[in-house]
Amino acid sequence: MVSLRSIVDIEDLRVHVAHGSHLLDVELSGAHASEQQDPTPWLAGGELLMSDGLGIRPSTEQQIDYMARLKRKRIAALILGLGGSLPYGELPDGLIAGAREHDLPLLSVPVTTPFIAITQAVYARMASERAVLSDRILAAHAPLTAAAAGDAPLLEIVAAFGRQIDGWAMLYDPAGRMVVDAVGPSQGVRAAIHDYLARHAGKGLRTSLADSDPAGGYAIRPLGIDRLRGLLLYGRTAGRLGDQFTSSVAGYAASLLSIEMERRHAMALIERRPGADVVRRLLAGTDAARAPQVLAAVGLTAERIQVLCATSPSLTPDDLADAVADGVPEALMLTAASGVTAIVPADPQVVDRLHHTLADAHAGLGGPVRPHHCGASYRQARQAQAESRRRGTGLTEAVGLGNAHVLLQLVTSDGLTTFADAVLGTVEGAPNGPGLIRSLRAFLASGGTIEDGSNAAKVHRHTMRRHLRRVEELTGRNLDNARDRTELWLAFEARDVAATL
C-alpha cells in the first residue's frame, strides 16, 4: 500500500501539510494533475490530485464547493502548487475552509516542485510494492504446491494455507459436512457454512462470501471446476482479510483444492463402475447360488444386503453418491439422473451411518434380504423413499412402515391396482369422489373417530358423517366392521405401493 504519508515524507518534494496531518495514512490509487474547474469526471477515487490553481475559482464559496466535490469523489488529497507565476502565492482561505469542513487533506508544494516528480514518486512506490507483493505471493505458493504433492493433500493444503495467511482454514463438502477442521473459528463462523448453503443452494461455483464475526473476519470460497465439490472457509482474528496477498493466496489454495477434489471424484467414478454393474445384475435377477459370487467379486461378502434408493434436493446424483461413499465405503452404487441406487451390507452400524449421511435427502432403505432377493428389497426401498418425500427429508426404513407394506410389496403392480380398483373404484368414480376419498382416508387414519377425521380432512363433522354414509352405500362395506375398515385401508396402501413399483 502506497500511503499519502510516504509521499509527504520525501524531503526533496517539499510538501507542506495545511490540513489533514491525521489523515496521511490513506492509501493512494494513483496521482493525477488537472486544471479543470470540476475534475471529478476524470477521477475514480483515491487519487492524489495536483493543481496549479488555474481551474480553481477565486471566490471562497466556489473553493469550498470545489473541495466538497473532491470529498464526494473520495480523492485522497489535493496538492496545490504555489508561487512564481501561478495564480496563488499561498493557500487560499476557501480551500482551507473547505478542507476543514469536509476533512480532506490539503497540501501544497512550491512552484519549483514539478508535478511530474510527485507522479513518478507515487508510481515508483507502487511498482516497488507490487514487486514485493509478487515475491511474497510466490513465496507463499511454494508450501501450498508442496502440500498438494503430499500424502494427504486436502489436509496439508488447508493447514498450509491457514499458516500462510496467519489465520485458520476449514474444508467442507457440498452438503456442509466438515472434511478438515481447524482451531480458531468461533461457533458463529462455523455456522456460516450452513447459512451460506441455505442462501446460495443451486448457485454452484458463482458465489463467494466475505463477512465478519465478533471473533474476526472470514470468507467462503466454493471449490470445483464444473460443479460444486466443496467449500473453503477461512479467516483470521486480527488484520485485514480482503488484502491482495490474502486474496491471491486464497485463490491459489482454492485452485489446488478444486483440482484435488475433482481428481478424487474422477477416481471414485472409476472405482464405482464395477459396483454399478453388480447392482444392475442383482436387480435384474440372479439365482441363489450365483448372487453371493457376484457380490464377492467386488469385495462384498455379506450374507444379507439392503437396497438404498436416494435423491437429494440440494446435491446432484454424482455428489450424493460421493456422500454415500464417504459414509459407507463398502456401498455398491448405481448413479442415474433419477438418483442413486445402492446395495449395502445389512448391518445396524451401516444403517446408522446412512441416517447421518442422508439427513437432508429423500431416501428409502429396503429390508434385509439374501442377495438373490435384491429385487424385493429394492421395491421396499422405493416405497420407503416415497414415504420419505411425504415426510420431508431423511432416511426412511421399510421395516418401519409396518408389515402391510412389506406384504403388499410381494404383489405385482397390476395385482395391487386391480385390488384397489375393486375396493375404491366406485367411490373414486362417484360425484365428489375426491372429497369422499379424502374424508374416508382421514377417518381410517384417525382410528375411526369422526372428530379427529373431520379435523384432518378439514370438513365439518356432519359433512364427514354424510361422506361416510355415501361410502358405505357405494362400497357395500360397513365402517363399524373392523374387517371392512381393514380392507378399505389396505386398498389405500395398495395404491401407494403400486405407485412406486
UniProtKB/TrEMBL annotation:
Domain named Purine catabolism PurC-like: residues: 13-124
Gene3D superfamilies: PucR C-terminal helix-turn-helix domain
InterPro entries, per the entry: CdaR-like_regulators, PucR_C-HTH_dom, PucR_C-HTH_sf, PucR_dom
Residue span(s) of domain PucR C-terminal helix-turn-helix: 436-494
Domain of life: Bacteria
One protein family per Pfam: HTH_30
Matching PANTHER family: CARBOHYDRATE DIACID REGULATOR, DNA-BINDING TRANSCRIPTIONAL ACTIVATOR ADER
Protein name as annotated: PucR family transcriptional regulator
Species name: Mycolicibacterium sphagni
